[in-house]
Amino acid sequence: MEKIKIETNAYVYPMPMVLVGTTVGKRANFMAVAWVSRINSKPPMIGVALGKTHYTNAGIHENKSFSVNIPGMDLIEKVDYCGLVSGKNNDKSQLFDIFYGELPNTPMIRQCPLCLECRLVNPVDLPSNTLFIGEIIGTYTEERFLTDGKVDIRKIIPFTLSMPDNNYWGVGNNAGKAWSIGKNLKKTG
Amino acid sequence: MEKIKIETNAYVYPMPMVLVGTTVGKRANFMAVAWVSRINSKPPMIGVALGKTHYTNAGIHENKSFSVNIPGMDLIEKVDYCGLVSGKNNDKSQLFDIFYGELPNTPMIRQCPLCLECRLVNPVDLPSNTLFIGEIIGTYTEERFLTDGKVDIRKIIPFTLSMPDNNYWGVGNNAGKAWSIGKNLKKTG
Q1: Which helix H or strand E contains A173, and what residues bound it?
Q2: Does the beta-carbon distance from B38 to A179 stay under 8 Å?
Q3: B140 and chain A in contact, CB less than 8 A
Q4: What is the average pLDDT across B17-39?
Q5: What is the helix, strand, coil percentage profile of chain B, to 5?
Q6: Cβ pair B112, B72 in contact under 8 A
């Protein structure tokens, strides 16, 4: 089929939805973020790319830390709300039960199945966004979200985002084992 | 419920699967990557975080470009294969039909529903990985993957990865409109 060119403002499909936590002006704040990815293996680092005008950014710069909280589908309305309103004009500190790990001013969300506590390594200044790179120094979950000691995606029930159509999606069926199902394409002998 | 601490090598759920294309030693090569995210809004930029020992990295450094190809579920075995074997010892250039856009030595995959052609902006050196930041200068798809002029996730049928359990997952059901379903939590008046 013939390829066509479309606008360059394109996305990957789908994008994981998280809540980035920080403290701004002594108040816990949470921002809905889909531009997030692991970016270093050892030590474990994660990156979140936030538009420079966001209220959250000042808190990360000030505290040199942030949290990445992975919400379950049951929190989808609250997550969307966190993306609709700015902490500048809205107190989002009462939306969730907050707990803290080792880092001060780095609030995490008790209702989220998985919470990553991150020490800011390096903010990368880009034209319209700042990529905050954080080292994961604490990971918090609950026994009920584990299977054989590992976080189980079927138990945490995360959701994803597609843009530019702006829709949320659940996780679908298992489609096979990674680093495994392609083995039959390996040339033998 | 009580939070417990687990190992810090934690992930986001789920991660989008892409194939990163480049030319290494005059041969097109493709690498399976899940550590990928948009990282800048204007101009559109994307980041891929590759372990430093990967064969692909030399090609990106040399050509100052790479492609991000979003495969449909029909390519899952080939994608997994691309993650199983290195281009150093295996010719992956014949796995797909290749096309080129504006950048030389930046192969894209005709069988992928969505292909992003990226000019290297900046490689960010991290301890074990290099984060390659690219500006998207060309986006290629087909009419059949669009709805109302926008890429339709239900038509491209992408898949995702969870770690450390190493499973692939399809995209699930629509879970609502983003920047919308949280509106009822806004305080009125």
Answers
A1: strand A167-177
A2: no
A3: yes
A4: 97
A5: 15, 45, 40
A6: yes
DSSP-assigned beta bridge partners for residue A92: none
Q: Kindly determine whether residue B4 and residue A49, on different chains, have CB atoms separated by under 8 Å.
A: no
Best of A1, A9, A12 to disrupt the B interface (most B CBs within 10 Å) is A12
For A36, half-sphere exposure in the C-beta direction (CA atoms, 13 angstrom radius) is 25
What is the distance of C-alpha B130 from the center of its chain? 15
Chain B residues whose CB is inside 8 A of the A174 CB are 167-169
Q: Are B35 and B49 in contact (CB under 8 A)?
A: yes
> For chain A, where are the alpha helices, taking DSSP H only?
55-63, 76-84, 153-156
Q: In angstroms, rounded to a whole number, what is the distance separating the alpha carbons of residues A18 and A4?
A: 33
How many contacts (CB atoms, under 8 Å) link A and B?
342
d(CA A2, CA A25): 53
CB nearest to B153's CB, from A13, A80, A173: A13
In degrees, to the nearest 5, what angle opens at C-alpha A141 toward C-alphas A75 and B126?
A: 100
For the complex shown, is ipTM > 0.90?
yes
DSSP string, B35-79: -EEEEETTTTEEEEEEETT-HHHHHHHHHTEEEEEE--GGGHHHH
**Residue from A154, A155, A162, A184 to probe the interface with B (highest B Cβ count within 10 Å):** A162
Closest residue in A to B160 (Cα) is A14
Backbone region of residue B139 per phi and psi (left: phi > 0; alpha: psi in -120 to 50; beta: other values): beta
- A126-172 pLDDT tens trace: 999 999 999 999 999 999 999 999 999 999 999 999 999 999 999 99
Query: What radius of gyration, in Å, describes the C-alpha atoms of chain A?
Result: 18
